[in-house]
Amino acid sequence: MGTRSRIVLDQTLDNKTSNIVSMYCHYDGYMEYTGKMLLEHYSDKRSVQNLLALTDGYASVLKETIEETIEDSVNHEALMFHDSVHHFMNDQEDSDLEFIYLFKNDEWYVSKRNFVRCDDRFQGENYFYWTKFVKLADQKEVQPKPKLKVVH
Q1: Would you say residue 152 lies in a domain?
Q2: Is residue 128 part of a domain?
Q3: Domain encompassing residue 95
Q4: Considering its fold, how many domains does the chain have in total?
Q5: How far apart are CA 89 and CA 93, in angstroms?
Q6: pTM, two decimal places
Q7: 15 found inside a domain
Q8: pLDDT in tens, 106-152
Q9: Between 122 and 25, whose confidence is greater?
């Protein structure tokens, strides 16, 4: 079973024309893996643009290089385009994604699919929603692990 995610690039120019493009990533979408991979290997707009363009919208799992990502991908999926982040997020309401990574203004942000339990809900007891986007680099899941000292 995959931890599904979307990698999104906001190419809005001069706060006027929105241009949102995204790709799907099937496995290992959690912050400890895909989040770290994005921060460490896809940290500028050009590398994110190349990732989206060259993978044709799909990755089985994100790798350190685009070539490795393409080589390990077993499916294809078209890039998704939206005219705003708001419209993009509206389209994700009923998706089975777990994480959305947004590259905007030269920084990575993340939104996580969360839920609340509603015992009296008509259709299932869980209500799913997306969290606000927060800076990915600030999340504890992507912080370097402290080195342990050997005590004699």
Answers
A1: no
A2: yes
A3: 5-142
A4: 1
A5: 7
A6: 0.88
A7: yes
A8: 999 999 998 887 777 677 777 688 999 999 999 999 998 777 778 87
A9: 25
